[in-house]
Specification:
Blueprint: H1 5-23, H2 39-47, H3 56-78, E1 81-87, E2 90-98, E3 104-107, H4 109-116, H5 124-134
Antiparallel strand pairs: 1-2, 2-3
Helix pairs in contact: 1-3, 3-4, 3-5, 4-5
Amino acid sequence: MPETDLEAWERGRREALAAFMVALDAGEVDLEADPLAFLPYLNRFVADQDYDAFDQDDWRYLHAILAAYIADVLIRKYGARWRLRHDARGPNYMLVTIGYDGGEYETSPMDIVYHGLGQVPPVVTRMLATAELTAHLVRRYDG
């Protein structure tokens, strides 16, 4: 049976994230057991970048790898699954989750990261929190 677009997307995402982890000397981190165990490595990588020297390809790579990681956390920790949507921008790979209220919600890791990259250096934990809030996986505390 031929691979679907969503299966190809997920395979590519996993392969890219695994290669990135090896490059950061974090290949031994078991994302299956704890997807947040990679966060310290990723935070260090993000903090160590010279953003003034970034070209367009660097920003695209950072955007893609951060979105791959955010997706990984939502998939492994919350059981999210992919859904392909088409909008004015073209295909948009959305993660579908069941929120704390029992409703179904769609979240775009690419959109979450796009908005998160507005702050330099980006804050990965803030992006993760935004993804969890957008997916209604956690309640907002405004105390």
